[in-house]
Sequence to fold (504 residues):
Amino acid sequence: MSIELPTADETVRFGQSLGRVLRAGDLVLLAGPLGAGKTTMTRGIAEGMGVSGRVSSPTFVLARVHPAGPDGVPLVHVDAYRLGGDLGQLDDLDLDTELEDAAVVVEWGEGVAERLSADHLVVRMDRRPDDVRVVDLEPHGTWTERAPLVSDQRG
Amino acid sequence: MSRIIMGIESSCDETGVGLVRLAANGTVELLADEVASSVDQHARFGGVVPEVASRAHLEAMVPTVRRAFATAGLSMSAVDAVAVTAGPGLAGALLVGVSAAKAYAAALDVPLYGVNHLAGHIAVDTLQHGPLPEPCLALLVSGGHTQLLRVDDIAGKITEIGSTVDDAAGEAYDKVARLLDLPYPGGPPIDKAAREGDPNAIAFPRGMTGPRDAKFDFSFSGLKTAVARWVEAAQARGEEVPVPDVAASFQEAVADVLTAKAVRAATESGIGTLVISGGVAANSRLSGLAADRCAEAGIELRVPRPRLCTDNGAMIAALGAHVVAAGCAPSPLHLSANPALPVSTVTVS
Fold:
């Protein structure tokens, strides 16, 4: 099922609904070309999770850790754009955070990050010529049961 | 009495070691500036691998330190203080520099100063243009940072007044270069292609310039998307992409927003000096447009030479010298690296 997001605000809102269902150990891969709205989506996810720190592109720093809010878990925002083709383990990122205690969102991670966990959600984003963003959710493992929760959250 | 300060930088790809002499009157003189880069090794892996960066720093550290002392014609015992980048940067990469600095400080029995990488980019200007007028305004533009900073005291009080809300300016260059099939890093090839192009050929958007947008923040994500859209549309029509025009129009949009906001910030706060530093400061259109607009507004513009603008140890040594001159307390030997160190923390206590 494709979801149409005509504006950046709606991409943020979709991200918020996804962020509200994320928990420790979750892995989300954001796929799509330059300008598809991956960082904008992550900004929504961060808001939905209630984590702190401004979300901006992590391309240069490779990964950024956003500390948890009062009742949540931290968000690790990874960008595999500059990484070599082999992200064998997220441990290779040298992060100062226990990854099983955080939700991990990886931009440009498709084909690189899925082996990190059989349980992951691919959020496929595309930009139509009329600038509307089209999103498809592709659940793997336990996400097959959980993906509908995201739509429930959107209410 | 003059003092010798050693500076160590390892926040990203470059292992840098600088040596400066701090004179009794507070002037800072550059004695050595040695850099080893792991960029070639990353190319071998097809991208940046943090583990590779850390290992490369480890291998390069001692040889780079030795080269710096050889260049300066000094023995290590001449050092009076060691300064090191404590953040921001890649965690594992920073750790190598911090560990090395601690070892040198302990072995030489001299004070250790863990300092801020971003403040170093500003302090480095004093090596070329002399003491900074305070307050001054700094525009920091590189692959990882795009920030507008108010500097009341280079050794202690730096305030962020604006930054990018999404992509850094240098990152937009890299991504647009990829769209145009130009090599990485994207700054130099785009600058070169733009010289043959018309900067007014395509009206690309100026991010964050609407009446309701934050006055001094930046956004380059929409610009990147607009370039992607324009290139795709040309390709869909079966046209050849006019790379020089796209490069020139993109570069104009970046330089326009950066300089307009920096000059406006200086004018509104009555600040008479603007420093532009970081890797993107070497861009010819950015420095050219900044020179025109600063001259018009009666603002003094200072841009360090390209070698000083990119990451190096001299900038950390220079900042260390200003921190020592100001009589700041040294950092403890249990100093740790902080990948997210805010610019308001010049020295880690």
User: Anything to note?
Assistant: Strands of chain A lie at 2-5, 27-31, 63-66, 75-79, 103-107, 121-127, 133-139. Chain A has one domain: 2-152.
